[in-house]
Amino acid sequence: MATDVMIQASGVTKRFGHVRALDKVSFEVKRGEVVGFLGPNGAGKSTTMRILTCYIAPSSGTARVHGHDVFDEPLAVRQKIGYLPQRAPLYTDMNVWEYLKFAAEIRGLDDSTFRKRLSKVVEVCGLAQSLGKEIGTLSHGYRQRVGLGQALIHDPPILILDEPTSDLDPNEKAEVLRYIKEIGKDRTILLSTHNLAEVEESCARAIIVSKGRVVADGPLDSIRNKTGRVRYVVTIDEKNAEMGKRAPSAAEAQNAFGAISGMRSSRELPTDETAHKIELIGPQDTDLRAEIFRLVVTKGWTLLELRRDAQSLDAVFRDLTKGDERLDRGDAWAAAHAPTDEDDEDEEEEDVASPKGATADDEDEEEDEDDEDSDDDAEEEAPKPAARKG
Amino acid sequence: MSPMLTIAKREFRSYFDAPLAYVVMCLSFLALGFMFFMLRGGFWQVDRASVQKVFEYTPWGLSLLVIPVVTMRLIAEERRSGTLEMLITLPVKDSDVIAGKYLGALGLVLVLVLGTLLYPLAMFKAPWHLGPLDLGPVWSGYLGLVLFSAASVAVGLLISSFVESQAVAFFLTFAALGTLWFLDDLAEVSGQGMIANALRYVSFQTRLSGFWRGLIDTRDVIYFLSVTAIALVVSFRALERRKWA
């Protein structure tokens, strides 16, 4: 079936016992797209990917990959995809070459094709130095590369990568993202992550899932605009000012900017320069940059930077997936844990780790394991409230 | 090479990447040697050119040590470490996974079983000639051992496909195969009657004893083959269960 739709899920629902892990998930991925599949831990990202790779079957709904139904033609689907499961589970007793050879043999590649593909994969994934090494001795980053290599060995048109960057240090992350960009030039890639910066770096489109539902789907810009707010960042010199005027204190500047009509909020951002960096949130339909500039000129402050961007994806993400765990824990929890706004937001990022509550223990076991591992990532995004799981 | 054989080859080779296989093989050969020559006078006491004792003692070691060790990790370990997901999402059928793993494990067990061929060869051919060996019971004895191994490995695989921990798989297989073996002795204790007959009917030991004497009974052959087939089919279902759970 010649089609431009490479991955198509329509009304995919997955129940584990009485827990609904996926609820009528529908989306399409077209040829050549690199799509970020985004959501808090336990939102159903892995479940979706497992369905697309025919590891588990949907309870209802259908999914087609490269025109083949995942239920009726699992082998045809698997031939067309390269899949990297979460945490790249590889046979640790094999060396890298053996493993790639094993994957190639199962996929029915003959020797000369394997050799050709191997040299390409080794080049793209940077495995030249480690071909002879036992996988058990490799660092996470290298295992991830081997996993990628395994997924690429048969030159598949579609790649499905489940959190390819979790567990990696920042350098390795950047490396892996670079590979993904590199290999994404001529392939369709569905990439799951809960790290938003990665999506911004490597994908043009994102699908955000929360609690088993698709809550947003579209180009990053339109997702950013979803909440209808625009963010400005203004940096003012804190020592010097123009024309003999006095440099403002942080509070002064913050208040002055906040007073601009239409401005919704203003707060100081941390900075290591000798400057005040202030973040302002304004409405989407008007551009307040001119107002800000005029204010700065009138006051005689030294403007170091003025930037306007759509609201950060982080904030959109939090907005869209908010309330997940409050629902889960019930009102009692919300009442007990709703002291400050800020605190709440941190919890948001972290607590979605167990969104389905105690009832979901059975099916969540696997997912939860994964979550423990990805805590490192989450930490970068938000400070972790102490003893949250107790 | 078909995916099934690729999986079987990988499984078989992986035993030799770890010391466990070597340790188990050495231990079981030592134990067999001890039992054959030393235990209660051993071979010398029998005073006949027969290696029947090899066939009597080898299943002990296979049931209680070798097969539990060889099969414990087959599916359980892969499920725990997540490699099962990686394996199954390659273009392989679930039945390829089960059959491949089964053949890999059975291959190792058969290497061990065939290793015991050293006894009749060394004792009655070269370098020693301890007497004229009746070859009939030797062939039938080995046929019995192979059938027994096939059924026992399938039972081990079945257990491994239901649990997540290697250790649990080991002990359950140990218990299951031990029970299937010693049911015969239980039948002795319970005397005659329905129960004893039923116990003898399922006991691997009773089923094997004919082979030792050179008797190939199709009922015994069919029995071992049926156990193998049923265990493999149930393992396959257990693996498939992940789709719906």
Give an overview in words.
The complex is a heterodimer of chains A (390) and B (245). Chain A starts with a strand and ends in a 9-residue tail after the last helix. In chain A, 39% of the residues lie in helices and 26% in strands. Chain A is elongated, with a radius of gyration of 24 Å. With 390 residues, chain A is an alpha/beta fold. Chain B is mainly α and 245 residues long. At the A-B interface, helix 2 and helix 3 of A face helix 1 and helix 6 of B.
Structure in a nutshell:
With 390 residues, chain A is an alpha/beta fold. Helices cover 39% and strands 26% of the residues of chain A.
Order of helices and strands of chain A: EEEHEEHEHHHEHEHEEHEHEEHEHHHH
Number of helices of chain A: 14
Gap from first CA to last CA of chain A? 52 Å
**In order across it, which strands form the biggest sheet of chain A?**
6-7-8-3-9-10
How many structural domains are formed by the residues of chain A? 2
Based on CA atoms alone, the radius of gyration of chain A comes out at 24 Å
Helix-strand blueprint:
The complex is a heterodimer of chains A (390) and B (245).
Chain A: E1 5-16, E2 19-30, E3 34-38, H1 45-52, E4 60-65, E5 68-69, H2 74-80, E6 81-84, H3 96-106, H4 111-125, H5 140-152, E7 158-162, H6 170-183, E8 188-193, H7 196-202, E9 205-210, E10 213-219, H8 220-224, E11 229-241, H9 250-258, E12 265-269, E13 275-283, H10 289-299, E14 301-310, H11 313-321, H12 324-336, H13 341-351, H14 361-381
Parallel strand pairs in A: 3-8, 3-9, 6-7, 7-8
Antiparallel strand pairs in A: 1-2, 1-4, 4-5, 9-10, 11-13, 11-14, 12-13
Chain B: H1 3-17, H2 19-37, H3 42-46, H4 52-71, H5 76-81, H6 83-88, H7 94-115, H8 118-125, H9 135-160, H10 166-189, H11 194-202, H12 204-212, H13 218-240
Helix pairs in contact in B: 1-7, 2-4, 4-7, 4-9, 4-10, 7-9, 7-13, 9-10, 9-12, 9-13, 10-11
